[in-house]
Amino acid sequence: DVQLQASGGGLVQAGGSLRLSCKASGFTFDDLAIGWFRQAPGKEREGLSCITRKDGRTYYADSVKGRFTTSSYNAENTVYLQINGLKPEDTAVYYCAAERADNYFCNGYGPGLRRFEYDYWGRGTQVTVSS
């Protein structure tokens, strides 16, 4: 069975940092893309970043460039999302999602940051930023 497990959320003061983890298991695709999303109460789910497993290609939403960094997959198929300079408006449930990747995924012009582009989702992890 395929599984995605997101973790690492918590309560942080504004200006602090967090590193979220997403462990992917059971996927047998030739290439895999992991996307990070977040959803604040009453808002749409927002795409933040994506990364491909084969060549580590990344793409970020303009709203998070410079503060969010997605790392390459490690040997345990875990991808990290480093968030620096946390703001109260970053408070949300953060999700990771997975999809079979092609050469267009996460290249900035193709798929990667939209919810409907992913078929596999993990449970979210809550991030709360206090002011």
Write the SSE topology.
Blueprint: E1 3-7, E2 10-13, E3 18-25, E4 32-39, E5 46-52, E6 58-60, E7 68-70, E8 78-83, E9 92-100, E10 120-121, E11 125-130
Parallel strand pairs: 2-11
Antiparallel strand pairs: 1-3, 3-8, 4-5, 4-9, 5-6, 7-8, 9-10, 9-11
Keywords for this structure?
131 residues; mainly beta; 7-stranded mixed beta sheet; 4-stranded antiparallel beta sheet; 11 strands; 0% helix; globular
What's the gist of this structure?
By secondary structure, this protein is mainly beta. Helices cover 0% and strands 47% of the residues.
Structural features, described:
By secondary structure, this protein is mainly beta. The protein has strands spanning 3-7, 10-13, 18-25, 32-39, 46-52, 58-60, 68-70, 78-83, 92-100, 120-121, 125-130. Strands 2, 4, 5, 6, 9, 10 and 11 form a seven-stranded mixed sheet that branches. A four-stranded antiparallel sheet has the order 1-3-8-7, with no helix packed on it.
Shape: globular
Fraction in helix: under 10%
Secondary structure tally: strands: 11
Radius of gyration: 14 Å
Distance between the termini: 41 Å
Query: How many strands, which pairing sense, and closed or not: the largest β-sheet?
Result: 7 strands, mixed
Percent of residues in β-strands: over 45%
By helix and strand content, what is the structural category?
A: mainly beta
- What ranges have pLDDT less than 50 throughout 5 or more consecutive residues? none
- Mean pLDDT, to the nearest integer, reads 94
Order of secondary-structure elements: EEEEEEEEEEE
Number of contiguous helices: 0
